[in-house]
Amino acid sequence: MTYLIYLEYNRKKIENQGQSYPHLSIMNKIIEKIKNIYKTFFISDLIQITDDIDYKRKRILRMIVEFKNGNISTGTGFFINIKGNLLTCFHVISGGDLKILRQNDDFISITGADEHTRLQEWVNSKIKSINVELFDGSKIELELSEFNEQYDIALLKIKEVKFLEKIEFCELNFNQNLKYNDAVFFAGFPLNHSYTGLNTPFAINTGIVSSFPETEVAGGKYRHAQLNSINLGGNSGAPLFFKNSNKVIGIVNGNMNMGSDNILFHEKTKNQAVPGSLRIPLAIAYVTELKLIKEKSSIFNSL
């Protein structure tokens, strides 16, 4: 294929310069023969691959969750069908990892038949609005349809059908398992210096699958795919693709970092100490595979 590109490049160079080249006809025949061998993989296909970041950029969207107390949670999400269903991480919607929610006093005070029912009640009582920001900057309000806290996944849908014509969605691939050394791609809206979650710029990441640890990230303990790629807060809910593919195979839901959550910072404006955390992200991202979610949960059953 590299040889084909080389021949195409030189042929076009000769033709554009109007040069007379005695072996041009032979070159043309060689090119056509190679193209017949690679019937479905021409130069136009290579151009499409390099351009498919534009395809993804229009479909990978910023999530904005506003709570009644004024707090905001941001992340990444993507539409999955023409009906206006959207996927993101549950912790983006709830505003915190499952293990943190379990320690929340308001959540602890809720009584219910099971944890899922209590989480549903807690989310309904705390959230003011859920919006997704489209590629053109406009926002569409969503409502929570279903979630699975164990696998950190949330399914939402558009509130008003009049906005359906504005959405562009991603295709899902439930049939393939990730393997060691698979080359992958994801993108989202990671937090950045001098930005907030509401205006931090779109960013892309590539890497390879390095491991499959059974670990707790933002949901329960289960097998995650571990990537050797930087992943910052704000990317949660980002779709994962095989490199040079437009079908989603997983969803990014966390990272590995070093630091502490019990640090006090001095706030100059109030002249007081405020609690906070100081963590440094490592070059590791965690992903939940769509195949696993479909096999282990009912999140896609209603689609």
Task: Give a brief description.
The chain is an alpha+beta fold and 303 residues long. The protein is 25% helix and 37% strand.
Structure description:
With 303 residues, this protein is an alpha+beta fold. The chain folds into 3 domains: 40 residues, no CATH class; 106 residues, Thrombin, subunit H; 124 residues, Thrombin, subunit H (Beta Barrel), CATH 2.40.10. 25% of the residues lie in helices and 37% in strands. The strands form 3 sheets. A 6-stranded antiparallel beta barrel has the order 1-2-3-6-5-4. Strands 8-9-12-15-14-13 form a 6-stranded antiparallel barrel. Strands 10-11 form a two-stranded antiparallel ribbon. Helix 1 packs antiparallel against helix 2. The relative contact order is 0.14. The N terminus is likely disordered.
Write the layout of secondary structure elements.
Elements: H1 2-17, H2 24-37, H3 43-57, E1 61-67, E2 72-79, E3 85-88, H4 90-94, H5 98-101, H6 105-108, H7 115-126, E4 127-133, E5 139-148, E6 153-158, E7 171-172, E8 183-188, E9 203-211, E10 214-216, E11 221-223, E12 225-227, E13 239-242, E14 247-267, E15 272-289, H8 290-296
Parallel strand pairs: 7-14
Antiparallel strand pairs: 1-2, 1-4, 2-3, 3-6, 4-5, 5-6, 8-9, 8-13, 9-12, 10-11, 12-15, 13-14, 14-15
Helix pairs in contact: 1-2
